Amino acid sequence: MISDGSPLPSASGLAWLDASGERPDIVLSTRLRLARNVQGHAFGGRARVNDRAAVLEKVRDAAGRAPLLQGVSVVEISALPRRQARLLMERRLASRELLGSSDGDSRTGAAVVLSPDRPLSVMVNEEDHLRLQTIYSGLNLREAWNLVDSLDEEMGRELPLAYHPEFGFLTSCPTNVGTGLRASVLLHLPALVLTKEIGKVLQGLSQVGLTFRGLHGEGSEVVGNFFQLSNQTTLGRTEEDLVDHLERMVRQVIHYELQAREVLLRDAAAETEDKIWRAYGLLRYARSVSFDELMNLLSGVRLGVGLKLLPGLRVYPLNKIMVFTQPAHLEEVAGRGLSTAEADVHRATYVRRILANEGVVGTESGPGDSSPAADD
Amino acid sequence: MISDGSPLPSASGLAWLDASGERPDIVLSTRLRLARNVQGHAFGGRARVNDRAAVLEKVRDAAGRAPLLQGVSVVEISALPRRQARLLMERRLASRELLGSSDGDSRTGAAVVLSPDRPLSVMVNEEDHLRLQTIYSGLNLREAWNLVDSLDEEMGRELPLAYHPEFGFLTSCPTNVGTGLRASVLLHLPALVLTKEIGKVLQGLSQVGLTFRGLHGEGSEVVGNFFQLSNQTTLGRTEEDLVDHLERMVRQVIHYELQAREVLLRDAAAETEDKIWRAYGLLRYARSVSFDELMNLLSGVRLGVGLKLLPGLRVYPLNKIMVFTQPAHLEEVAGRGLSTAEADVHRATYVRRILANEGVVGTESGPGDSSPAADD
């Protein structure tokens, strides 16, 4: 059963926010995608309207038969109000490319298949015909791989996927040929940034075939000290090898980050604590905040949670703030378009509400509190 | 009765903090002083050790007889631990000049006469033999003048004051000759600063014989948007004229400040509100704060109280914070010397404690709150 879902199910695809999985204070999410194409249709930029329409129909049929995709919605971008399409992008389920140009001229056949109960989705007619995707909370490469691999098998049974015995899966861009796999882990590395060790770490990772990007993938800037670490090559190694390699490297980076946090607490405890509490104070009371500033302040607060300096505050609301304070999400709640200045005000309001509901224990105490009580 | 007071009475001379008097959100305090000298002794820099010792003895005797000075402490700077002397300065009862060089080499006869129950004090052997002083909270020039004038009469009955029939009271510096009066009003003018109108206002005041200084009088910088406005001339007009003129001008400046606040609320409400709440958030949570940053943040919060944007917060604790977070006050509470970094931490702790005890109503609401409630 497929529901031909429009409008977008309101909380779709947000399970990766729930701060479950391993080490969720440092690892925001684990994302895997497989690039696949359907035989008999031109790929990517060479695909005509006919190709794209036909691919979407084939995917729709296949989804109707694949057990993992029971109950999914097939959401066509062109049928979606623009703001709803932007919601998908802000939830990392659709790419900017899939959404097409901002004047609403989206491509024929561009769609997202959304699972109602599994962290699974498929972008249809993006750079490749199919992008099978899964996003898990925390570090969860094994489970993520198993799920997307199962979906790949099911789709492979239902659709004639373009495959070359020597090269592997064929893709629109040569960098994806082979496994078509990109495995990414979104890491929060504030201590490596503060101790200025991050450059060395990233350089080391590039030497072992890994690359990093910002929050929203390719071409996006690093904000809030979030680094998306992923495999650079997809050819010549098995998927399991790629995933295992990434996992080992991620664990190494987590280890470096934890070491850097110890250095901060040892060499700059007062400054670090002050920075964290100031970030919290601004988030708690500011009346207007840009998304970039928010991300920087959240980074400080998230570090505080990791260092157990903000007891009572959980990671989940911090994750939630990151997603729900993006422009389309704010507009969705407001029920109208928002200017940048308005969005800044709505963003600050949302953050205050969320943080006010979170207990922060011992906000009045700190290392300076050894002084006798101030009289009042 | 005079108690030969050492150590310093702990809460002496702080009545001007209590946010009573007129318009205490804008006018921190009203301060009047009369410069007087005793006949038969060299003035100021020409006064020898003998002169200064003799002057102090004469003042002590006179104080024993003057009704307004019953129960006072005569605190000799040389007999006071250095930190206690700095407390006097931080409370605006003693000048840096009176305290002498920082290596503790204070001048013979330098003393402060402190009233236990009236806002009265006398600096002895500062630039002049006597500086009769009163500080009131808020705008209170009339009452302040009556009090210091009464003290002047009493002292004039007990001591042969240097007076010239043509010029009036003789002083060490020619700018004080005549009435010897300096009347100062400490004004908080953040809106005139934010709207950049302050330059024009100060220029206008200088054209009508008024001058401005920072928090700690001559040579001190303006911090936290506090301007100390006072008469420039002391000669050729009666004391009543000088005081009336200053009062009229102060009322005019208050009017300009209130107008500027209306402009802020009209043209930059969101920015102003954000600025105020951010200042509050930082004061509420920072773990380390320098005195200059504190003054700037307090300025924002004080403006918020004036604009009724921080309901529940009173002016009194803000005044108190300004005095009790100065270095000597922090050291006094800590019971030891503090490095600058330590003082910054103790300062932040003190501020958090005071603000945590003050209810701030409606901290989660604001103009952006018209958006539907964020789900949690």
Question: Could you explain how this protein is built, in words?
Answer:
The structure is a homodimer of 376-residue chains. Chain A is α+β, with helices and mostly antiparallel strands and 376 residues long. Chain A folds into two domains: 246 residues, Glutamine synthetase/guanido kinase, catalytic domain (Creatine Kinase, Chain A, domain 2, 2-Layer Sandwich), CATH 3.30.590; 90 residues. Helix content of chain A is 43%, strand content 14%. In chain A, the strands form two sheets. Chain A has an eight-stranded antiparallel β-sheet with strand order 2-3-4-5-1-8-10-9, covered by helices on one side. In chain A, strands 6-7 form a two-stranded antiparallel sheet. In chain A, helix 2 crosses helix 11. The interface between A and B is large, with 43 and 44 residues.
Short synopsis of the structure:
The structure is a homodimer of 376-residue chains. The first copy, chain A, has 376 residues and is of the alpha+beta class.
Question: Helices and strands in order, then pairings?
Answer:
The structure is a homodimer of 376-residue chains.
Chain A: E1 27-36, H1 49-65, E2 73-76, H2 82-90, H3 96-99, E3 111-114, E4 120-124, E5 130-137, H4 141-158, E6 163-164, E7 168-169, E8 181-188, H5 190-194, H6 198-207, E9 210-213, E10 226-231, H7 239-267, H8 269-285, H9 291-306, H10 315-324, H11 327-334, H12 340-357
Number of domains of chain A: 2
CATH class of the largest domain in chain A: Alpha Beta
Question: Largest interface, by Cβ-Cβ below 8 angstroms: which chains and how many residues each?
Answer: A-B, 43 and 44 residues
CATH architecture assignment name of the largest domain in chain A: 2-Layer Sandwich
User: Would you identify the regions of chain A where 5 or more consecutive residues have pLDDT less than 50?
Assistant: 364-376
Major sheet: arrangement of strands of chain A:
2-3-4-5-1-8-10-9
